[in-house]
Specification:
By secondary structure, the chain is an alpha/beta fold. The protein has helices spanning 3-12, 27-36, 48-55, 66-74, 109-118, 138-148, 188-199, 211-241, 246-253, 277-286, 293-303, 305-319, 347-357, 389-393, 409-415; strands spanning 17-21, 40-44, 78-80, 91-94, 126-130, 158-162, 181-185, 205-208, 328-332, 361-365, 397-400, 419-421, 433-435. The chain has two domains: 3-209, Rossmann fold, CATH 3.40.50.720; 304-435, Rossmann fold, CATH 3.40.50.720. It contains 15 helices and 13 strands. The strands form two sheets. An eight-stranded mixed beta sheet has the order 3-2-1-4-5-6-7-8, sandwiched between helices. It has a five-stranded parallel beta sheet with strand order 10-9-11-12-13, with helices on one face. The longest helix is centred in the middle third of the chain and has 31 residues, at 211-241.
Length: 436
């Protein structure tokens, strides 16, 4: 039996071992889904604390329950930081970060270093799937040559696909199983195996003709959001100058049953994808002599939102006869979106850093983030403050940066001296509420 026949059979019969590399917001849900349908799953991560927690049946992601991890462990799931075990799985799914470097250029070091660590232990008859968001050409230009350096013939005895992650943490309406899965293969045989890999765990696999098409699909999805959010953020500034509530306008426009999709403004972009992905395409486009002015303009607008918010804070404090320096300011919500604990690229952090630089005394309240986490580029030695009438009254300003459902916004409105609302929580105009 050929490699493709044997591997396809094992995947379809759920006899295959699945290796998930990178056990974060993307990798861990995949672990649980593959384990749920009966695959043996081996998880890889360089973070020993994550490995230890998972093997003990504990989750470190708020919306993933400990019970779900325990069930997977009881079913045979094992986490490890021993990459020499990479030959055990029949499939290796790579879910590692793809950030930007200091020059806003793609940083593929996590991907390439991961593949280099796996390479000595790979064997014929495996499939590798890259899920990390990246520019078109990464799979064929970075992964394929590395596999071939080990005399693995892609499409014959080794199979390579790109299948971008589509996760929306905290959204109860969509799960790993129900979100359609894009998949592109380096060869037709690779795509065949890719469909077998995901077909048993995802309701709908959407094949495309190449890994480049799959890579660009993911970028288009997030650039679409980034551009539209940039548009509505710019509209927010215009509406504010005109004395119009932009949230009322978006809600009204959304009643049109065709030709309009509502996007809402905020204090900036957050999450690992939307603030970062557009720069992957603009960087790659320069190789072809193209300049993505439209995308870059949206990026400029969105990147300027934290400064816009700080300007509104300064205006509000000025009306109360106070400068930012020395003022006590409470940030409500430091996760990048509501009802999650995900801090990646959170605009709240950018606002906090701008305020700190101007001499403000900062605190935050976030029921999903009890202590400010260790981050590569940002640090605040803070714990979440209790949200009480006394706490609120002690601050010169309260900034609504993330509109978690667990916040008592009536309490905030009643006891805060000054509120800067970046999320449209308060629709009725009040003297002490400033829309930002």
């Amino acid at each position: 039996m050929s490699h493709i026949q044997l591997l396809e059979s094992k995947l379809n019969n759920r006899d295959a071992c699945i290796g998930i590399v990178g056990l974060g917001y993307v990798g861990l849900p995949l672990v649980l889904r593959f384990a749920e349908v009966g695959y043996r799953v081996l998880g890889f991560d360089i973070d020993a604390s994550k490995v230890e927690a998972l093997n003990a049946g504990k989750s470190y992601i708020e919306h993933i329950r400990n019970e779900a991890v325990t069930t997977a462990v009881d079913g045979g799931f094992v986490a490890t930081n021993d990459f020499s075990r990479a030959g055990e799985p029949d499939a290796l799914i790579i879910c590692v970060p793809t950030p930007l470097n200091a020059y806003r250029e793609p940083d593929l070091s996590f991907v390439t270093q991961t593949v280099e660590a796996l390479l000595p232990h790979l064997r014929p008859g495996q499939v590798m799937s890259l899920e990390s968001t990246t520019y078109p050409g990464t799979t064929e230009e970075e992964l394929k040559p590395r596999l071939e350096s080990r005399s693995l013939v892609v499409g014959k005895d080794y199979f390579l696909v790109y299948s971008p992650e589509r996760e929306d943490p905290g959204n109860p309406n969509f799960t790993t199983r129900t979100i359609p899965k894009i998949c592109g293969g380096v060869t037709a045989e690779c795509l065949q195996i890719g469909k077998a890999l995901y077909g048993q765990v995802i309701d709908r696999v959407v094949p495309v003709k190449s890994t480049r098409a799959a890579e660009l699909t993911k970028l288009l999805e997030n650039i679409h959001r980034a551009v539209n959010i940039g548009l509505v953020n710019e509209m927010k500034i215009i509406a504010d100058r005109m004395g119009i509530d932009i949230f009322e306008v978006v809600d009204a426009a959304a009643t049109k049953p065709f030709g309009f999709v509502p996007y809402y403004p905020g204090p900036g972009l957050g999450g690992h994808c939307i603030p970062i992905d557009p720069f992957y395409l603009t960087w790659k486009a320069r190789e072809f002599g193209l300049h993505t002015r439209f995308i870059e303009l949206a990026g400029e607008v969105n990147s300027s939102m934290p400064e816009y918010v700080v300007g509104k804070i300064a205006d509000g404090l000025n009306e109360h006869g106070k400068p930012i320096r020395g003022s006590r300011i409470l940030i409500l919500g430091i996760a990048y979106k509501k009802n999650v604990d995900d801090m990646r690229e959170s605009p709240s952090v950018a606002i906090m850093e701008l305020l700190r630089d101007k001499g403000a005394e900062l605190s935050y309240a976030d029921p999903h983030v009890p202590r400010f986490p260790k981050m590569r580029e940002h640090h605040f030695d803070l714990e979440s403050a209790p949200l009480t009438a006394e706490t609120l009254a002690a601050f010169d300003a309260v900034v609504v940066a993330t509109h978690h459902d667990r916040f008592d916004f009536d309490l905030v409105r009643e006891h805060a001296r000054l509120i800067i609302d970046t999320r449209g929580v308060y629709r009725e105009p009040k003297a002490h509420i400033i829309k930002a």
